[in-house]
Amino acid sequence: MTKFLGIEFAPLAIPLERRIQTFAVLQWTLSFLFLGFGSLFLVLYTLIFTKYWYLVLVYGIYYYYDRGTSARGGRRVQWIRRWKIWEYMRDFFPAKLIKTADLDPNKNYIMGFHPHGIMSTGAFLHFGTEATGWSEKFPGIRPYLLVLAGHFQFPVYRDYFMTSGAAEVTSASMRYLLTQNGTGNALGLVVGGALEALEAFPGRFNLKLKNKKDIFDQMDNPPGSLLRKLQDFLTKYLGFSPPVFHGRGVFNYTFGILPYRKPINTVVGKPIDVEKMSNPTQEDIDKLHQKYLDCLKELFEEHKTQYGVDKDKHLCFID
């Protein structure tokens, strides 16, 4: 390991498997950050500047008739979900899915995922791939990673993303999966959204509704600061947060867009049975919401010390 001008460089003699793990995380990070707009640029370039413009028109017709698929469970491809590259990505951190109770495949589930973090890496690995052993741990349960509908407006990228089992996090999409797609569906919601991502700092356990160690560092943005005001403004009007973050690099451990090698341990608690109500009152909603928060806090307290969290640390539910 070498340090130069404050930058800690990775040693040359690194096992090949660790280099492959780094590449696996790099391709996912680049896809997360650039593949959507990159696909849009490629389609526009092909349409305007090449002789293959007719391919874009053909795709446009397909896109028009297929536009509702992301609200009807997407189009998962199990072969892609089982790609070896996701296992290398899992081992980079490593990421683990911890089961505490069985899930009945004759029921449907809405599963809150915490914390949101910068890129929701854990949620993608657990719900969007088979790298952490979802199908073996929960047989008969189909996981769906629910994300902003805007992801599915990017041509080509939308088709690739749907192969992971991703679908829209809209009321129509959730209603379809819960009432028209049979049973055994697990809807993964990364609760907290854009604003909780702005609270993603190492050592904090803030939930917008726990932030464990995050795998990125974020520029300090206390409430009232110029950066936080700008982020809140963009979140309000664009629907997503623009955290100013950094992780490590491919060849250094000091600065870059790759996440750090920190364990991602996701504990799945026992289900909360919910009685179906056609017209729930606000009191019914508040009571269920409080029960969820109480169970979440109990789950955190029960397992935190097993995964490196100090016993004096607790969840903080922020406004």
What's this entry about, in short?
It is an enzyme of class 2 (transferase). By secondary structure, the chain is of the alpha/beta class.
SSE run: EEHHHHEEHHEHEHEHEEHEEHE
Mean pLDDT across the residues is 85
Number of helices: 11
Strand order of the largest sheet: 4-7-5-6
Structure in words:
The protein has one domain. It is built from eleven helices and twelve strands. The protein has helices at 16-49, 53-66, 78-81, 84-92, 121-128, 134-137, 157-162, 171-179, 193-197, 226-238, 282-303; strands spanning 2-4, 7-9, 95-99, 109-113, 142-147, 166-168, 185-190, 206-208, 217-218, 245-246, 264-268, 316-318. Helix 7 links the parallel strand 5 and strand 6 (166-168). The longest helix is centred in the N-terminal third of the chain and has 34 residues, at 16-49. It is globular, with a radius of gyration of 21 Å.
Task: Please give the structural blueprint.
Layout: E1 2-4, E2 7-9, H1 16-49, H2 53-66, H3 78-81, H4 84-92, E3 95-99, E4 109-113, H5 121-128, H6 134-137, E5 142-147, H7 157-162, E6 166-168, H8 171-179, E7 185-190, H9 193-197, E8 206-208, E9 217-218, H10 226-238, E10 245-246, E11 264-268, H11 282-303, E12 316-318
Parallel strand pairs: 3-11, 4-7, 5-6, 5-7, 8-12
Antiparallel strand pairs: 1-2, 9-10
Helix pairs in contact: 1-2, 1-4
Enzyme class: transferase
Family: Belongs to the diacylglycerol acyltransferase family.
Pfam families: DAGAT
